[in-house]
Specification:
The protein is mostly helical and 120 residues long. The protein is 66% helix and 0% strand. The mean pLDDT is 83.
């Protein structure tokens, strides 16, 4: 039995190059969209970078909240206790009461390796 071929219409031959061009254009558009998705503004790389920055900012905010809580506790302590104010004045400002004597103990100077001076 002979194999019969379907008749070839002239329209079919005219569409094949057109379909190739359309397919090529769609493929190029797909490549451009993928490029923008991965590397453009708002793409995956920028989202990952922003997520990292958000996490760093959350960590910094947590540290600052803890510091603020410590400072608030110190302020409350200074408001309520007179001995806390006195302690702070002594340690940070070097203040002493009028009837007190202040003694400062100075450690001996370290050995000078240049001169070989040993003060023992």
């Amino acid at each position: 039995m002979p194999v019969m071929q379907a008749p070839v219409h002239s329209r079919t031959w005219g569409l094949k190059p057109l379909m190739r061009i359309v397919t090529l254009i769609l493929f190029i558009v797909l490549i451009l969209l993928q490029f923008k998705l991965w590397f453009g503004d708002g793409g995956f790389r920028e989202v990952a970078r922003l997520e990292t920055r958000v996490e760093e900012q959350r960590q910094q905010n947590g540290d600052l909240l803890q510091r603020n809580a410590e400072l608030q506790a110190e302020v409350e302590d200074l408001r309520e206790r007179l001995d806390a104010v006195e302690e702070r004045a002594r340690n940070e400002l070097g203040l002493i009461k009028p009837d007190e004597k202040f003694y400062q103990v100075v450690p001996p100077p370290p050995d000078d390796p240049k001169t070989g001076d040993n003060r023992d």
